[in-house]
Amino acid sequence: MEFKANWIRPAKDLGDVCPVFKKEWKIKKPLKKVELYLTALGVYEAEVNGKRVSGYVLAPGWTAYEMRLQVQRYDVTELVREENILTVIVGRGWMRSPMPGFVEAEYKKKRMEQPCGLWGELHLTYADGSKEVLASDETWEYGESAVRFSEIYDGEHYDATFDTTLWSHALRLDWQTDILMMQEGEEIREIERIGAKSVFETPAGERIVDFGQEITGYVEFCVDAKAGERIRILHGEVLDKNGNFYRDNYRDAKAEIQYICKEGGQTYHPKLTFFGFRYLKLEEFPKKARPEQFKAVVVCSNIKKTGHLSCSDPDVNQLFSNIFWGQKGNFLDIPTDCPQRDERLGWTGDAQVFVKTATYNYDVEKFFTKWLHDMAAHQRKDGGIGQVIPDLLDAGNPSAAWGDAAVICPWQIYQTYGKKQILEDQFDCMKKWVDYITGATTVPYLWAGGEHFGDWLGLDAPSGSYKGSSREEFIATAFYAYSTQLLVKAAKVLGKDAGEYEQLYQNIVETFRKTYPEYLTQTEHILAVHFRLAKDLQKTADDLAEMIKRDGSQIKTGFVGTPYILHVLSEYGHSDLAYTLFLRKEYPSWLFSVKQGATTIWEHWDGIMENGDFWSADMNSFNHYAYGSVADWVYEKAAGIRPLEEYPGFERVLIKPMADKRLNWLEASIDTRNGKIASKWICTPDGIRYEIETAVPAEVEIGDMKMEVAPGTYTFWG
Ligand code: BGC
């Protein structure tokens, strides 16, 4: 697509107020089609003749803006009349936000000082076949909008009494246009509206709205008010142990809505920001508030649900629900760590940990493709991958298990969806990451040195530390080996010569074995088995099982060990123990947070402790999907839907369920690119009944029984 338009900006600085840009035009002859191409420095909402041009919210999304900025195309033919007005409000969005909360003031200032800009083209195709392009230039106007303030973390202020009456000509903005590209990711949309469950008063006398579910998005409220009356709303995820409103864990994110009412009935929701919340505190609100006045609008990338999990235990079903909600809440254009506090960043480690589950739960091929392209764009010259993508923490050192997202994520996308293109696109980035480690280590064939997050939040962390006790260089080397191995596999898929990396892989494994003759923690055992580094895999898995039992049949793992722990146990004959950990309801466990009332996955196993205290105020998110990665064990091991590496995209599968009588039944299904694959087991007085549905040829293994089946539905007894 050849674009012609110039960037434009307001002629003067409007401070906190979001500008609205305007283009008026008249139609002189019969039209066939009108297309609008639009993007902005910030986020925008566009209307033609007072009607929104699309359901896309927070456009143009979040990319590596200096290199890649998405342009949206809207067909607005239906909205066009003889005399037309296009208006576009532009907010700070991600680009001009001072995010994140914990960086230097100087850096924040620099981000905030970037100019507000709009870029647009109206393409008119007339009935007679002729064409005309109205491109943004100085004929477009701007004024102050009713959005008086808008920012990703701090929220939005809106004055419904404000009318834009003063319009001036916009100026040209000198900004790159070679960064423009057509929309590549999924659109961000309002996907659901949830009514408030209750409005109540806390012991501290606060007025609270409860939606009964933590979501990411914004509230839509309707109110009957006098002009000038004010509404102030704060957001919170949980109540404290006394039942009062709590928001210390949002840290510096104000997450506040201010709204000046116009006269009469009105409905409003923020346009250019979002929040992670379950509760609202009505600091100011006219009259008595009723639940019917509030809806939580769920905003998420438009990903299609493909996975289904359920079983006979209501707590486990709540866990499943929390996992899906955790994904919806953190798949808002990029995979974020959390949606509420002054962070909301594309932490690479979190995405790596969760990517397999993510691909089974939803179709995220397009979503990850865009993010991985941004990763490649932001890869540092030396091949290092930042801690977050888009990489706005330039100074952050690449960490093992975080940077490895560069290899693990594209490989997983290829495995689940079966298209080589993602490997093609990312191969260079994958290779440069492995080369980065080779160049960065102080000891060949290990990853020695560097700064790492270790087994982040591992429960075996020494007091006062966020990092579990597993040795950082052990983890780093294990991931070095794993990434190198995946790189070799990717090279083979693409028909590239991988000899050099095969040798490198052998050398890493050998050196790893010599350097680490024994494993000290749960996570060290897990990585040694899962990445097939231990010489004796079975013995290492048995040792892990013993260690877990000695630890009181409890997980001690953090971000790095948790995603694989149950896989390793089930794979090596300890399925029983895997279920013990999975079904455990006391702390620490997946179900502890469920027992504590969680509706999404928590950052900490004990975000709210047994006694009702919080883990901390400074780092305690109640919507952090990482530990939700347990779902891929449920799909693959509990229900037994296992992809076969040589048949990417589920062209052929192994179905090997592992039932456990502590549940009466369990079922899972995935709508793969090759059709639906479903597996259910039911414990009956006559034995265990297995119901299998497969759209592809499958190898079925139930106990000692092994057979090959054609696509179809089957029942087996075991
Ligand atoms: C984020 C994590 C992230 C970590 C890295 C945190 O603040 O929320 O999920 O991976 O930092 O250390």
Describe this structure in words.
With 718 residues, the chain is of the alpha+beta class. It is built from 14 helices and 38 strands. The termini are far apart. The chain folds into 4 domains: 8-185, Sandwich (Jelly Rolls), CATH 2.60.120.260; 189-301, Jelly Rolls (Sandwich); 304-638, Glycosyltransferase (Alpha/alpha barrel); 653-717, Maltose phosphorylase, domain 3. The chain is globular. Bound molecules: beta-D-glucopyranose. Residues 640-701 form the Alpha-L-rhamnosidase C-terminal domain. This is alpha-L-rhamnosidase.
Low-confidence stretches: none
- CATH topology term of the largest domain: Glycosyltransferase
- By secondary-structure content and strand pairing, the structural class works out as alpha+beta
The number of helices is: 14
Measured distance between first and last alpha carbons: 59 Å
Number of beta-strand segments = 38
Count of spatially separate domains: 4
Helix content: 25-40%
Q: What hetero molecules are bound to the protein chains?
A: beta-D-glucopyranose
Q: How is the main sheet built?
A: 10 strands, mixed
Query: How much beta, percentage-wise?
Result: 25-35%
CATH architecture of the largest domain: Alpha/alpha barrel
Rg, alpha carbons: 27 Å
The mean pLDDT is 97
